[in-house]
Fold these 4 entries.
Entry 1:
Amino acid sequence: MSFSQLFSLGVLILDVGIVLVLIPRVVVQRRESAATLAWVLVILLVPLLGALLYAVLGVQRLHRRRTRRRRARQRLDAASAAIRGAIARFNLGAPGARLLALGRLARGFCVDPEETTAGNAVTVFHDGEAAFQALCAAIRTATRYVHLEYYIFQDDETGRLLLEVLTERARAGIEVRLLVDAVGAWGLPQSAVAPLIEAGGAFARFLPVAIFSRPFSLNLRNHRKIAVIDGEIAFTGGMNIGNEYRSRDPSIGHWRDTHAQVRGPAALRLQEIFAEDWHFATGENCLGERYWPRAMPEGEVLVEVIESGPDRTAETIYRRLFVAITRAEHRVWLTTPYFIPDRAILVALITAAQRGVDVRLLLPGWSDHRFVLFAGRAQYAPLLEAGVKIHEYGRGMLHAKTMVVDETWVTIGSANMDRRSFHLNWEANLIFLDAALNAAMAERFLHDLAHASPVASPYNPPPLQRLGESAAILLAPLLLPCRPETHGPPHDGSSQGPMGLSQFFGPQVVG
């Protein structure tokens, strides 16, 4: 037998072995049917490539990750219970006619009255520069501790400026902890945070990627953006740390995002989430009584802090969004930069429109992640046919993650309307029950529509673009973005059209 015959036989045996081993693994994981079918087809058609993709993108070790995070959570249970006790008098289960009435409304939207707190003051930022300046100002007022957690933390002017502020606070004796995702903040060198550490601050990376010891952690990322100062002030939303979020990256231009500052009991809930993530990453407990605020009530807004991640089976954010859409009576105005809904969310939006609900989607006309943009557009036709109004934002990059429902319910957070945020990322969102905040967010939505173009129905893109969109939605369950693109939107504000294959399949990071 010749060498070429032996080689071919070896490859055949290897291919058969890969198929026999991997396909049962994929099936027993009970993914969504589309994802399972996609993985099975890739492994059958190109076993070697399928095995490589599965090693990088698969979630085989999710059970081990879940076990490890559950153990971390169990170690913090006593402190968490104490925090819940401290804020219990501010939740919707507390006495009071107004709270009881709002409690009934909350239950209608599947909001947990025991997790929703009154007594919060909320400031919403739609401009990255204003949000960043407010964050720095709050950090400078810290008297006890500053805790920050970000998916992306760039080593640029913005990142270095924030590190300087943190270092100054650390030198002043304030406890400073900075947690970044190992993949999202891959470009942040250890040398950049060395002054902070030397000043007494602490720094950690969430789930570092080690090829041999942790080959599957690349697919499970911490997408949260949380800052907590003294347990009294907290920030969360869509903004990471980098020049682009302040509209200072000339390759991108204007960056439209939404971030929220909360004062009151909800800030302590965000501290609880940070403490759990920090404990998981470092083993250190920062959830003791000394991390509680001295005073909590600041305003009248009702806030529920919700979290989700691959270590949880409840998928809280996903379910809250689904219920809000299905229970809506008057309007659902959704803004999201990355739109790849699963079948349930898609049907919920369609049936809401068919019930007469005013369903509007504000989506990007240009995206820093073109694959996701095209996968989203592949869903336009059935939505438009059902009466959903779709608008594509044309003034730079749209990155806000918000939803306004009826006249009271609002959410702002880190979660995108896609499968990755729902099932693979660790996310954090705020749900507000407040008529004034709802009206202000609705007004901002209409303001953004002035910079957007409506998508005509029926949706009929050019053949090449249609092919790209079909390929994107077919491959969406498989592909993982890995790094950001460097080119910005068209200078004329127009939407992205057909692209080359290298642009379409190029690795990207969804923030």
Entry 2:
Amino acid sequence: MRRVLCISPHFPPVNLPDVHRLRQTLPHLSDFGWEPVVFTVDSADVEGPKDPLLLQSVPDDVKVHRVSAFSSRLTRKVGLGNVGFRSLLQLRAAVDAYLAMHRADLIYFPTTVFTSMSLGPHWRTKFGVPFVVDLQDPWRNDYHLTLPRDQRPKKFWFDYWQKKTLEARTLPHASGLTAVSQHYIDEVMARYPTIVGRPAMELTFGFDPADHDIVERNAVANSVFAPDPETFRFVFTGVTPASMETSIRLFMQALGRASARSAKTLKAHFVGTYYHPPADPSAPPSLVRRLAQDNGIDGLVAEEKARKSHFEVLRIIKDADALLILGVQEESYSPSKLAPYLYGGRPIVSVLHEGANIIEPLEAAGRSDYVTFGHGAEDEAVVEALAAVLIRVAAGKGSTAKPPGEFLAVHSSREKTRRLCALFDQVIDVEPLC
């Protein structure tokens, strides 16, 4: 059996979005000829929410090596709080020690802590082990360059510089790529022509029915709302970045119109909109709250800024009357929530960029309750169409059927792992040519 070292500073019980690729892959790797060994950062040294139930989904026989990280209280004095920087030396030393004593066929980086990926060339040079990176988000993201300076994030130029620099030093040496969007692969291959022709695969997020078993077995409760037959609740789960402003604004405008025309009371819940909610009570209103206020529907919108556990989110999805997918300005947007949303069997209302690659799987699953925005769409027409969708769905006329079994099988975590292992095998087979 071949062995793959999986490097991810975020790992259960840490409850951040990038843990799920690896978490849902681990139970199936050995079925396809790969033994996983995980290197991660001790959860006590990772800033962010924790969910102990996530550990129930990690097979007992998987070897997990946890390293320490420098305290963020110290590193923030020099402007560095990112766990990738804080754990870089420790991960390097731990994997160096392991590779000096043990064989590994491949290294995989299923993480959005991109800084850790910069260690790939070191291990390839020193130990001859090829590496594959997983782009769940763009590493270097040029989106904020299109915005006025006063709308760019704090410390934007340093963050952009270090990501651009480390990406350029790392990706040309990668032996393979996976990404949630083919657009990400095309973008980096255009930027680094030396990797054109190396194994690469679009690999969207899957779902694992075992997660729902954990919800039921542990009687996970919904702390956000109680189901109410008199109120129809649209639910969005996940962070709401600035790039989502257009779709949220269109939804707020449509919700106001639909509420005035619908026979039912309509309400929208936004859950887990921040990775790290601001502690300062005098901080400006969130994007969701500001847009709700701007459109005069503050009373129709509830927001829970703090992230909920993965399993409570699954319970919330089950309790929702309808689910929301709100897209960003980029066509490559591929939300990790799509598979669990489809599996949940609830109506899904989507507001998407006209070129979003998520449209194809929605249509394949028979989910046509969506509207699109883009270069040729007038806001007024989009809002009116969306209001009609909201009214129709609230009246019980939205699509609720689960996708056919073959569709679910293709999007299961087991099938995603099978495809991933096929890419791993391909990397090993062609590595001498790279």
Entry 3:
Amino acid sequence: MWPFSKKPDPETPSGFADLFTRALRKTGLRDPIAFDEAGFRLKIGEDGMTSINLHNYFEEYRSATREGRAELMERWVRSATATDDLPGTFAEALPNLLPRIRERAFFEFSRFRPETAFLAESWRPVGEAFGVTVVYDRPETVQYVTRRQLEDWGVGFDQAVAAAVANLERRSGEPFERPVDGLHLSPYRDSFDATRAVSIDLIRGLKVEGDPVVAMPRPEILLVTGSEDEQSLVALARSLEKFLEPPRAMNGRLLRLEGREWTPWLPEPAHPAFPELARHALEAEGRDAEEQRELLQPTLGDGVFVAAFTAYQHRRTGALRSVATWSRGVPTLLPRVDEIVFVDPAAPEDLAVIVQAPWERVEEILPGVLRPEADLWPPRFRADGWPTLEQVRLLRE
């Protein structure tokens, strides 16, 4: 029998979890720690309600140097064991309050996870595909501020966001970098770069052609250009591939500033940057829909099928399209896609696909059949019934 315990292999998920657990134990933590392999997280405490998600840590650890790995682990453990106590009053907390932008999916899906359920009511949308919340910024970590905490302080959510944005603006005096003419890159690298998109005055102060357009591929990256600047949009599109590499990547969706509001945006299909930008937007849409499907299906059981979101490239035109399958006799929640594939499972395999039709055509020929499901983002539509032979003929036209 070996006299020593086996050293964990940090290149594997289980080994990394073991290494993280040992580092936590070295701080004196004595609470139970369980590794949730399916969720790739550590659950701490008797009830397991406190958890540490390991996905981003693992990717960042693997890409770091040997010396850098030790520094990262030390920082992460300090963050994980930091006190959760917030100041007793809003005035005391105010100097350390900052806004934080995340993908909207992060907030929307928090209600499916017990350890993040408190976030479900503690944010507001930004440009439909992102969301902003308020955090308390510490040297080693940030802590989300819940609406309940704000109520205890006697302030509203919008008031707290405005105060947090003002704090961030005071930290944003350094001028943006300009990797190419017309393209602005945030210089701060403090993990709040992307969040500076909520500072409308800061964005409006940048010289661009047309309306300001932003990309937020990572928390520490904010790219700004103009909707009418073709060359800079092409440069932005090319840079996204590099910035979207894991860990800590968000997504490649673009937002356009109209007045003081952000809206989702893509250039026209003939624009030279369109293919790359459309691909990044579609990939983000697909990831959100798939994560939603994985979280939603177990809550619905076998009575309703949560359809997958699939993307493909048209052979002839090269256009990117999204599709979902609707099977006969199966109540289905469809994601909002470009095309619906109608399948009859009882038919011979070579005849199972009845028709494939654009979403808009389905709504026209089968009015009222696709009904929006309440309180879901990305949107899902409940599909019941089945087209008649005449309706199938019309869908094929």
Entry 4:
Amino acid sequence: MKKIFLILAFSFSFSDVYSQRIAAGRLHSLGICVDGKVRSWGDGEFGQLGNKSISSATAPQSVAKIYGASLPPSGIVKVAGGEMHSMALKDDGLVYVWGRNNFNQLGDLVYNSNRPYSNVPVGVDYKRVSDIIDIAAGGNHCLAVKKNGTVMSWGYNYNGQCGVESTKTMSTTIIKNFSGVIKVAAGYDFSLALKSDGTVWSWGANSNGQLGNGTTTDNYIPAQVSNLTEVIAISGGFEYCIALKSDGTVWTWGKNQYGQLGNNTSTDSKVPIMVGTLSGISAIAAGYKHSLALQNDGTVWAWGDNQNGSLGNGTFTFSYVPIKVKNLTGIISISAGDDHSLVVKSDGTVWAWGANSNGQLGVGSNEKSNVPVNPFLSCQVVIKVNNPTENPIINFFPNPAFSKLNLNINSDYLGEKYVIYDNIGNSVLSGIVSSEKSIIELYDLSAGIYFFKVGTNFKQLILVNK
């Protein structure tokens, strides 16, 4: 039986999957320009900016040439920021890493005195780490999902965050007896995976219940998060987690000292709990101790620690419940760092707020901001798309789905033709939207990447896995 995983996009290209084009590390930031090249700014002490330097930068810098190559990485479709390292996924399924290497974050086991860091991108083990569809950077470890649904890990493993029953620093390793994964996320010293059946799995450190299994015992192999299904997105913070369900509700678990679970308390939770005041959410992001959620109308909500203005509401007061970020609309992507936040607007511009001690806001200074400001980024990170509030409502469900795709669409698209294309642009399936609730049968599609189009503006990327 085929399994369908849906990711929002607005053109027939992996490079325009805008939800993947920004990333906030601990004290640095990353963005992918429309040319597929990476810009970086903020803390650069261990080369995590990838610009041949070990200095911080208060304005965006171009990532340098790949180690041993004549060009910088291009065709990048996703970036991820760890504590002091950065990752990038290329459209050919290869992975690049740069920054600190004290625990083999570069994936080559040449670390410490031989290579304590790299300030330029390094290709990760091309023979093993290939056909990758998703990446995540933890505090000092890395995760990658292969096209076949297995997960690779490398780096620091003292708490089992690499999914291997050992405390040794790991080279690139496939997690045993674990498959069906479509997405990964990494907290500081633990890991998360989303399977195609909508379940969430976790492993690593668990001192505050961040594994969501009802205990505080570390786990060196993946185990299912308790009572959580129909999940479409996951995010790992310092010692807590966020999950988004297909019905638009948000669930959190783990440490809650600063209200980062959003349930109006400061009590930790060892199992998922619903953030009761949120609905209609399309994206989530977990920071060090603050959280973000993107609503379907393009507004952003934040909660948790706010001592550096990371909630973006014009104050420095903590909030134990979600509050709306000030003067911010038309948002299509979000990311949360240590104490700063990043978003992308539908016009392709990046906005940031929060801590700025190392220039992670990218505005040319080290002054923090408790309201959104615009980094000095010399390019768009996405091709301009319609404001989310300008698009008629279109929803696919369940997400993940199986051999039939359920389509909810408002009356603006009734009578419009829909087309599903393969990844080289050939039409493989088409029809007419005849009602606001439709079922599209996908039995004849083989495994691969497809694109759903209806009308002139709305396009949706579909990944089909057998």
